[in-house]
Design goal:
The longest helix is centred in the N-terminal third of the chain and has 13 residues, at about 40-50. It is built from three helices and six strands, in the order βββαβββαα. The chain has one domain: Nucleoside Triphosphate Pyrophosphohydrolase (Alpha-Beta Complex), CATH 3.90.79. The relative contact order is 0.25. The chain has helices at about 40-50, 105-115, 115-130; strands at about 1-5, 10-15, 25, 50-70, 75-90, 100-105. About 20% of the residues lie in helices and about 40% in strands. By secondary structure, the chain is an alpha+beta fold. The strands form two sheets. Strands 1, 2, 3 and 6 form a four-stranded antiparallel sheet that branches. Strands 4-5 form a two-stranded antiparallel sheet. Keywords: Hydrolase. Belongs to the Nudix hydrolase family.
Length: about 150
Amino acid sequence: MYQDRTDGRWVVLIAHRNAAGMLQWTLPKGGLEDGETLEQAAIREVREETGLDAVIEDKLGVVDYWFVWRPDKVRYHKYVHYYLMGLRGGHFDRRDEEAEDVTWLPIEDALHQLAHPNEAKLVRMALDDHDPPHRMSSTDVPADVEHGQP
C-alpha cells in the first residue's frame, strides 16, 4: 500500500520475526479464506496486519518460492499475488497482533528495509510504472489515517 505525500511516495511495511528470530520488514500478505477472491484476501490481509483500509489500483505480479515449514519439516511451494493499493483510511491501532510492527516509510527507505529482494523489485516497479495522479497535501489525507514516521 502506498500514499503520495508532498514529500514523495510512502509505503507501508510490516515487521515480523523470521525462522531464525530476526526482525524482518516485508509487505503485508496472507492466505485465502473460504470463498474469497485473491483481491478480497489482499484487502482483508492489509486491514488485519496494518489496520488500514485499501483500494486495489492494479495488479503488480505474482511471486512464487519454496520454503520449508520447520516444525513439520514439510516443503511448500507458495504463490503470492501482489497488488498496488492506495490508502482509503484506517489507523495502525486497528491492526491485529500478527505483525510485530507496522510503519510508513518513504519509498527509497522501504526499498532498503525490505527483507526480500523480490518484494523490493515489485515496489520499485510500482514506483517506476505507476506515476501518482497528484501529490497529496496534508489537507487531502483523511483524518483517521495513521501518519507514523520512522
